Amino acid sequence: MLSGLITGRNQGGPSAGAAAAYGSIPIRPGLVARIRESLANRRDPIFVDLGATGELAVARVRILLLCILLTIQILPGTATEVRRVTLPLNIVALVIALLVYILASRRPQPWLEGFGSSAADVTLVSCGLAAFLLLDQPHTAVNSGTLFELYFLAIGCASLRYNPQACALTGLLAVGQYGTIVIYTAGRWNLNDARYAPFKLGMFDWSTQGMRLILLAGAALVSALIVLRAQSLRQISTIDVLSGAATRRAFDERLEAEASRARRNYRPLAIALIDIDNFKQVNDTRGHATGDAVLRAVAGIFLQSLRPSDVVARFGGDEFALLLPETTAELVMDRLERLRAAVADTGVLPAGDRSGKPVQVTLSIGVANWPDDGPRIHLVLAAADARLYEAKRRGRNRIVGPAQDAELREVGAENA
Q1: 233: which residues sit within 8 A by CB, 6+ positions away?
Q2: What dihedral angle (degrees, nearest 10) is formed by the CA atoms of 120, 124, 125, 131?
Q3: How far is CA 406 from CA 66, 366, 402, in A?
Q4: Quick one: residue 13, left, alpha or beta (phi over 0 = left, psi -120 to 50 = alpha)?
Q5: What is the pLDDT of residues 326-336, one digit of tens each?
Q6: CB distance 257 to 53 below 8 Å
Q7: Nearest to residue 317, comparing CAs of 273, 379, 366, 381?
Q8: What is the pTM of this model?
């Protein structure tokens, strides 16, 4: 268990990995590894919520811009043949924008919704360029500056969804669609024929078109890297360097998000507050270096034993908090008992400790859940805190859960 950080109760010396693990700080993965991890792992719920908020902002801006464009086309002065194509396209785009705004307001699935609306933005730009082919204006389709630049606006808006996959896919879609328009136009028309003189938008040039495609791909890459950078900075600010658990701030943010989700779907949410018993004594008798090793070992047991959807946070000092979605305090008692027993049976021997005597620690745990322990999440947190202190008052090394038959349920009391 936690090889390299902890030893079994009966082992007399440090493990080979303990020296390497002690005092180390996790090395940040490279760019390729971070991209692969982002594609494989479940998204941070905070970024999911930020993505949904960004989607709503983009939806509002999209409607505003389309209304302005529609007003311009209705005003006198627009060529009839151009209006015949662009006006229906603008109306269709506005209808789609309104539907996306409704979806963004309800926030069903931000990832799918984010790429779906980005794909719609790119496709509408491509349809606008292709419309000029119907008007027999091929140079406008492939040499237009104003309409082509809307691709970059669509790719930039994709980054507001805080999803690198959406940024990359939006860019690839723009490259594919615009490349198809260019290839079709070059094959269908002799774009440098003298009949198109004086070439107000310039002559057709493959190198220019290739550069445009490269710029689209580059914009998508930069957009995705901006999101990955934001995720990396968030990880730095929300992970406790010593223990590897989440910080108190990260826990509070996740608690609000999970509480909102629990209320919306009326699903249970359990919270456990954990205190390492007599931790000050460990620091006083074995030193702060040993205390740090204990914190890493205990946090490691939690991180390895719980579900990916659970949150392990260091509240400060020797106190930890667990956020356990989709379960109740009653259902989680057995799992917490296994964690308590695992820590009690584990010896921690930091590198450089020549005593050969692993440090043994125990845990006191208080657990509560929404909605049984209060209609508000702060009341649930207060109930878990009260049960934690009840566990310590009754002798430590135990779990105190919900009240049953006017008595507090205790687990592990026989091992105190």
Answers
A1: none
A2: 160
A3: 63, 17, 10
A4: beta
A5: 998 888 898 99
A6: no
A7: 273
A8: 0.62
